[in-house]
Amino acid sequence: MPVLLLTSATSLHDAVVPLCAAAGVEVQVCAEPDLALAAWGEVDLVLVGVDLAERVVALAPPRRPGVHVVGVAPGDTVFRAAVELGAVSVVDLPQGAEWLVDALADVGERASPGRTIGVVGGAGGAGATTLACALAQSYAARAPTLLVDADPLGPGLDRLLGMEDLPGVRWEGLGETAGRLGARALRESVPRRELLGVLTWSGLRRRLDVPTARRILPAAVRGHDLVVLDLARQGGPALTELVDRCDDLLVVTPSTVPGLAATARLVADLGRSGRAGLVVRPGGLSDADAEQVTGLPVVAAVADQRGLAASVDRGLGPLAGRGPLARAARDLLAAAA
C-alpha cells in the first residue's frame, strides 16, 4: 500500500479514505501504531491522525520524508508532536482536503524529476519544431515523454504527430484549473499514444499563459522521464522564463549568413550560458563560423531528410524510418543523458 493512515477515529477514517480514492491511491488504515511500524518506512506517504499522534511519538519511529499529521482543528500539542515526528505539515480537515488530494496525486511518482530539453529556432523556418518532435518520438520509445507546445504561432504539435484527434486536455483546459496539479493527473489527461504525450492548443486563438506554465511544468517533469519544450522564437519574457527551466537548450539554425545573424541576436537576448548548443542545418558556412558568430558550440548537424513532409502529412511524425534526423535525435539524447 502506498499510503499508511494511522487513526482510530471513524470521522478521520471517513474523511481521508475517500480522498485517497479520489486521488487513485490505495491506503492501509491501522488503529494500532505499534503494529504499523513495519510499514512505516515502506510506504510512500504516512498520514498520522491527531488522535494517535502522541502515541506514535512515544514509539520514536525513524525520521523519514512524506509524513503528515491530519485531523480536525489540531491543537498546540498536535503541532509539538508533528515537530517531534519530523512531519512535513499538519493538515486541518476539511479545509486542507484540496491540498491533501494534490499531495496524494503524486504518490508513487519518482523521487527525482525528469530532464527538460528546450528547442528553439534561431531563425524562422530553421526546423526547431521538427527536431522537438523527433526528440520526443525517439525518447518515447523507451520511457514516458511529454512534448510541450510553447509556440502559439506554431502548426500544433499534435498535428505533426497525427495525434490531433486523440482525446485529452489542451492548454485552454489547464488554464481554467487552479491549485497544484499532480504529476500522474497531468500524464493521464493529455493526448497520449503509448509513452508519448503532447500538450498543445485546441483552437486558433492561442496565448501562452505564463502563470499556467509555471504551475504545469513542475508536474510535467515529475511525471515524465523527459519533457521537450518547443519554444517560440519571439516569446518575450515567457521565452526567457521557459529557457531558465531547461536543463539543455538546443538552438536550431541554418548555416547561412542571415540565419546565423538572426541566431546571434536571439542568443544575445536570452543571455543563457551553460548547457546550450547549436544544431546546424545545411548552408554555405562552416561549423567554426557558426560558433564564432553565435558564441555557442555546435552539438549536432542535421542534413535535409528525404520524404520528411510526406511522413508528417501521413500522421507518422518526422521520425518515421531512418535518416539524419533520427541519428541526430539519438546522439543529442545520449549527450543530454
TrEMBL record:
Residue stretches spanning the membrane: none
An example Gene Ontology biological process: negative regulation of cell division
Record keyword ATP-binding present: yes
Any GO MF annotation of the entry: ATP hydrolysis activity
The organism's place on the tree of life at top rank: Bacteria
Record bears the keyword Lipid metabolism: no
Residue intervals of the Rv3660c-like CheY-like N-terminal domain: 7-112
The entry's keywords: ATP-binding, Helicase, Hydrolase, Nucleotide-binding
Pfam families: Rv3660c_N (PF26563)
Entry's Gene Ontology cellular component terms: cytoplasmic side of plasma membrane; cytosol
Descriptive protein name: Helicase/secretion neighborhood CpaE-like protein
